[in-house]
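Researcher: Let's do a round of design. I'm pasting the structure tokens now; please hold your answer until I've finished.
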């Protein structure tokens, strides 16, 4: 598995996280017998332009897509081209 994941929420906003999908799924279900929890979760995200890590609080029920991603910091390249999907 890739060590990074890309999360898209229902508003269309996309987040890059330094976690694999299995870790995110475990965090979202939180011992809830496999059901998505109804509490907010705090995750670390990576700014694709600067590479800085930030904390974000998300509602797991608003997550639309989670996918593995490769994050590669490349100077002088627009942010849209900085990560590669598998």
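Researcher: That's everything. Go ahead.
Model: Designed sequence:
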């Amino acid at each position: 598995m890739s060590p990074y994941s890309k999360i898209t929420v229902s508003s269309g906003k996309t987040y890059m996280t330094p976690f694999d999908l299995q870790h995110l799924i475990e965090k979202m279900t939180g011992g809830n017998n496999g059901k998505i929890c109804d509490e907010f979760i705090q995750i670390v995200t990576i700014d694709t332009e600067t590479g800085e890590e930030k904390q974000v609080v998300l509602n797991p029920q608003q997550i639309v897509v989670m996918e593995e991603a490769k994050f590669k910091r490349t100077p002088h390249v627009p942010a849209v081209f900085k990560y590669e999907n598998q």
